[in-house]
Amino acid sequence: MKNGYEMPLPEMDVHHCNLAVVRCFDFRFREVDQHFAELFFGTKNFDLTGIPAPAKRLQSDQWVFQTLVADVRNVCVSLHRIKTLVILGHWDCGGYGGSEAFDSPEKEEEKYKADLLVAKKLLTAELPGLEIRIFYSKPDNKKLLYLEIK
Ligand SMILES: [Zn+2]
Predict the structure, then answer these.
(1) What percent of the chain is helix, strand and coil (3-state, nearest 5)?
(2) What are the pLDDT tens digits along the chain (150 aa)?
(3) Is pTM, for the whole model, over 0.90?
(4) Distance between Cα 22 and ligand 1 center (Å)
(5) Do 108 and 136 touch, CB atoms closer than 8 A?
(6) Which of 125, 131, 59 minimizes the C-alpha distance to 89?
(7) Ligand 1 center to residue 101 CA distance, Å?
């Protein structure tokens, strides 16, 4: 018996991709966030990383912000040559105390969208060569709806 677990070897000759996706740590959305990005952007080749409550942390924690900016510059842009950075926010985020921390679903959505817009502005200032796209996901008739915020 081997001391390990064998997996298919990933395709190694592709070293560039067009985008990087920053999502919340939350395990509940890991698979669906990844699947959304694959379908929406039409590729399985993208950098994927997680920050708890990314839109909130990127504006409230300088270390998190500077670390992400440095990693995106040094790895995603310089090495992988991405053109687009995507930030995903989601409803019922534990970083905000979940949905119960808000008076209504409308107030909750408003807060997440406002924070995503601030995060986009801060990232655009540090990473002017990149297109920054922000999305908010929420339940909608037993589906998860991803809305792009402009
Ligand atoms: Zn979250």
Answers:
(1) 45, 25, 35
(2) 678 999 999 888 888 999 999 999 999 999 999 999 999 999 999 999 999 999 999 999 999 999 999 999 999 999 999 999 999 999 999 999 999 999 999 999 999 999 999 999 999 999 999 999 999 999 999 999 999 999
(3) yes
(4) 11
(5) no
(6) 59
(7) 13
**In the block, which residue shows the tokens 């200032």?**
125
Give the separation between CA 48 and CA 86, rounded to whole angstroms: 9
DSSP state of 75: I
Position of tokens 């339940």?
139
29 Rama class: left (phi>0) / alpha (psi -120 to 50) / beta: alpha
Going from the Cα of 73 to the center of ligand 1, the distance in angstroms, rounded, reads 24
Please tell me the distance between residue 7's alpha carbon and the centre of ligand 1 in angstroms: 30
* Domain 19-149 architecture: 3-Layer(aba) Sandwich (3.40)
Question: Which position has the token pair 């920054």?
Answer: 132
